[in-house]
Write a structure and sequence with these properties.
single chain, 238 residues, elongated, alpha+beta, 7 strands, three-stranded antiparallel beta sheet
Length: 238
């Protein structure tokens, strides 16, 4: 996979001239990357499990910077073994009732909190009950990722683009198309080529098997629940 600097060089080459001084190519590369990642539910965007930390007396838990959407969350090391996903409105009701429900309640829109150390807001989840102690491994999160923004000052130039190798053509064509659009304010042939490449990648990605293991919740598993101990294969313990 190309480095950030190599991608920027190809964008400059596509423009055919030095870009306008107001045109930051790093911002354009980030816009192209965000578009590509959001274009489809790519199988390679699944990430985790990662640990989420709680802080004593804080209702908020920081999410990964590249968090896009929740797949699953558990609390394996907690006294509350169950994690229930709730909207913000229900979180406020739980807090107001101050009841002990024997489970975690969590809201993951995500919430965005301004950060004094970063130009971007921090992504957080809201939890109830409010943790009484800090725990660096309170939750395990499985999620889908979004594009990880590249710094606009050149400090990420040696970093590889955060994509699988087969998406190299797509990101370069998209980035060049975005560059030409901003330079000339006209739709380029690069965009048509990029969209054709994305359509091909989407069809190939759909053939990947995202889920492995035994199917649960279907007719077979319902029947298995009632399989008697006298069955030749023996009873099933679910």
């Amino acid at each position: 996979m190309l480095t950030v600097r190599q991608a920027i060089d190809l964008m400059e080459h596509g423009a055919g001239a030095a870009p306008d001084s107001r045109h930051n190519l790093y911002h354009t590369l980030n816009r192209a990357g965000r578009f590509l990642c959001a274009y489809s539910g790519w199988s390679w965007t699944v990430a985790g499990p990662v640990h989420l930390a709680t802080a004593a007396d804080s209702r908020f838990v920081r999410l990964p910077d590249d968090f896009r959407q929740l797949i699953a969350i558990t609390a394996p090391g907690s006294a509350f073994g169950i994690v229930q996903i709730d909207p913000v409105r229900m979180m406020q009701l739980h807090s107001a009732s101050a009841g002990g429900y024997g489970r975690w309640y969590i809201s993951i829109p995500p919430h965005f909190t301004p950060s004094p150390s970063s130009p971007l807001p921090v992504k957080e989840a809201m939890v109830y009950p409010t943790p009484e102690t800090s725990d660096p491994r309170a939750f395990e999160l499985l999620y889908t990722r979004e594009w990880a923004n590249i710094a606009d000052d050149g400090s990420d130039d040696d970093r590889q683009l955060p994509l699988p190798d087969q998406f190299e053509n797509a990101i370069i064509m998209l980035a060049r198309a975005y560059t030409l659009d901003l330079q000339d304010q006209a739709e380029s042939h690069e965009m048509a080529r990029a969209m054709a490449e994305l359509a091909l990648l989407k069809s190939q990605d759909a053939a990947n098997q995202p889920i492995h293991g035994r199917l649960t919740g279907g007719a077979a598993s319902r029947q298995a629940r009632h399989r008697p101990s006298s069955h030749p294969l023996g009873p099933i313990t679910l």
